[in-house]
Specification:
Blueprint lengths: L3 H24 L6
Length: 33
């Protein structure tokens, strides 16, 4: 059973991953390592 706390933590982790991915994409527009 998923609790509200687990759901909130999961949503926050997804949000942080999206922000991090966007930040890296902006810093390295055409640099694929």
């Amino acid at each position: 059973m998923i609790t509200d706390v687990q759901l909130a933590i999961f949503a926050n982790m997804l949000f942080l991953l999206v922000i991090l991915y966007h930040h890296m994409a902006v810093n390295n527009p055409k640099k694929q390592k």
